[in-house]
Write a sequence for this structure.
């Protein structure tokens, strides 16, 4: 069952990259149509390819370090028992899971949360807030650590930073295109130079693509993230053999109103609980990178087969 889920995860990863490549390719064509008022050419294909390759290379080699730096992560303080024990917990779980022990970092933030990053199990990094260490018991911290190790083992952390970078690229290109289109219109006083009806239609389609592209890219990332979170919860239970701990950790997250500081909330899909997101409306649920915590708890209860949680 786990191998089937892992294979499905890998297929979704391929679809993610293909989807972003298509979005960037179509976007480059739309930008050419909007700004130059002409049909697609070889130049748009070259530009789109360069953007995709540059974004993937950046995500592969530097994105994890950018996330750590932006979040204010630091190495654990050996003089603090909770942080010293955290290293032991992560190393013990990695040994059990037959994984290289990931590096451990801590963020000084009162909100309980954690995430993992790194492009491979050998380069894995786990990050925990001080709020999580203070509000959870050792078994609950162990369950959260197992959840993050699952992300590293399944290469979710690689996909997470890749998705963050690629979505960012799409958003930046769209914003630049819309601003250039606006200033082009202002400069020409709203007039058009030749063209005819076909050119007007092409420009209208290009504008629609520029507006829809970032929405499509973000929705694709949201769907993939939700699947990976549920799988990581289940794998954490299998690794620790303690469903109570994982359920308890999620209950702590659900019962805590404190949100991770906004500056730490970048790449929200990487965290075990999505920062700065409510679950009130259907739109909130559609754009959430994680399943609602009550749903995650119910799924774990079903896996454990224990009625005592109800």
């Amino acid at each position: 069952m786990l191998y089937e889920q892992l294979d499905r995860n890998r297929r979704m990863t391929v679809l993610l990259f293909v989807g972003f490549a298509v979005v960037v390719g179509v976007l480059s064509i739309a930008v050419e149509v909007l700004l130059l008022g002409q049909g697609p050419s070889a130049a748009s294909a070259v530009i789109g390819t360069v953007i995709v390759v540059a974004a993937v290379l950046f995500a592969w080699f530097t994105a994890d370090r950018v996330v750590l730096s932006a979040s204010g992560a630091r190495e654990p303080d050996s003089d603090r028992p909770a942080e010293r024990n955290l290293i032991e917990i992560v190393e013990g779980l990695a040994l059990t899971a037959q994984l290289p022990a990931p590096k451990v970092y801590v963020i000084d933030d009162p909100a309980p949360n954690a995430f993992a990053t790194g492009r491979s199990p050998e380069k894995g990094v786990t990050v925990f807030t001080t709020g999580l260490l203070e509000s959870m018991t050792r078994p609950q911290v162990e369950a959260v650590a197992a959840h993050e190790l699952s992300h590293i083992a399944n290469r979710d952390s690689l996909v997470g930073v890749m998705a963050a970078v690629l979505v960012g690229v799409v958003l930046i290109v769209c914003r630049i295109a819309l601003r250039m289109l606006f200033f082009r219109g202002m400069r020409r006083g709203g007039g058009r130079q030749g063209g005819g009806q076909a050119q007007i239609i092409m420009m209208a389609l290009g504008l629609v693509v520029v507006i829809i592209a970032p929405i499509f890219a973000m929705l694709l990332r949201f769907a993939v993230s939700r699947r990976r979170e549920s799988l990581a919860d289940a794998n954490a239970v299998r690794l620790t053999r303690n469903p109570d701990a994982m359920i308890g950790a999620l209950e702590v997250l659900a019962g805590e109103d404190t949100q991770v500081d906004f500056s730490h909330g970048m790449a929200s899909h990487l965290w075990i609980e999505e920062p700065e997101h409510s679950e009130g409306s259907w739109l909130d649920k559609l754009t959430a990178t994680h399943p609602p915590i009550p749903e995650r708890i119910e799924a774990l209860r079903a896996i454990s087969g224990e009625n005592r949680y109800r």
